[in-house]
Write a structure and sequence with these properties.
alpha/beta, 8-stranded mixed sheet, 8 strands, about 30% helix
Length: about 270
């Protein structure tokens, strides 16, 4: 039964976030709470899964079921949970380092499998938790104390990777627009299959220049494309500042049949008895 009395406050825990003042991740937490309230999902029917990093603290700040996993493995956990418990709404959260570096392989195959879950990646183009280390989305010429000459490497294009790997829904939001971001998350959760939401989430501590993003983003400039070729053309013409739903596909979600267990825990224990 849908409870229409739920508000965003119902989805936040009593744990106080420890993010730096001005961190964009506050906006994602607020947007996620607003989205779940709009969807009128009971907290106990939602699971928020994360890996490691500043953004991956989000499960502790929600009142839903949460799982704070190891570095890069959030999508593996979230996929297994959704397959085993298709009745749950599964939201996986993380950052550009956690999701695209050590978790890059899981990202590819989560898109390919197309299990019905939502993946929210807070991209600030830096490892904030490791004090300014470049991430896979960091610009080649960006310099810091840890990389005084820059990486010299071209940054990856997560939207292009998601599209090529088979994600069924691809969108970009901005933490400075929590209402618009909440609407994108609602659309992502409601769309069948693997939904990927890239979020521009400024790290004002190690990349203070990202404060200018609020002047650079173009609100909802992207319109959904049902054709992957059209979506690819838009991606490679995009400068990374256009917001909205880029692609809404029609692939059928992967959902293996769930039957009764053929073995009990006792059966397994007998096999390993000494």
């Amino acid at each position: 039964m849908i409870d229409m009395t739920l508000t965003p406050a119902h989805y936040k825990s009593d744990v106080k976030p420890v993010w730096c003042p001005g961190c964009g991740d506050f906006g994602v937490l607020n947007a996620l709470a607003k989205a779940l309230a709009k969807l009128a999902l009971r907290p106990e029917d939602v699971a928020v899964v994360s890996g490691i990093g500043c953004s991956s603290r989000i499960p502790a700040y929600t009142s839903a079921y949460g799982f704070h996993g190891v570095h890069g493995r959030a999508l593996a956990v979230g996929t297994g949970l959704k397959v085993a418990r298709p009745d749950l709404t599964v939201v996986v959260t993380g950052g550009d380092g956690d999701g695209y570096s050590i978790g890059g392989n899981h990202f590819l195959h989560a898109c390919r499998r197309n299990v019905d879950l939502t993946y929210i990646v807070m991209d600030n183009r830096v490892y904030g938790m490791t004090k300014g280390q470049p991430s896979p989305t960091t610009e080649a010429d960006w310099t810091s104390k840890l990389m005084p000459q820059g990486t010299g490497l071209g940054e990856i294009k997560p939207m292009a990777i998601a599209l090529a790997a088979g994600a069924n829904f691809i969108a970009r939001g901005f933490t400075g627009d929590p209402n618009g971001l909440a609407d994108l998350i609602v659309s992502a959760v409601e769309h069948p299959g693997f939904s990927f939401v890239e979020v521009l989430s400024p790290c004002v501590t190690f990349r203070p220049e990202q404060r200018e993003w609020k002047k650079m983003v173009r609100g909802h400039a992207l319109a959904p494309a049902a054709d992957s070729v059209e979506a690819a053309t838009r991606i490679f013409a995009d400068d990374g500042m256009n917001l909205g739903v880029l692609y809404a596909g029609t692939r059928r979600p992967f959902a293996p049949p769930i039957g009764r267990a053929q073995r009990t825990p006792t059966d397994l224990e007998r096999r390993f008895a000494l």
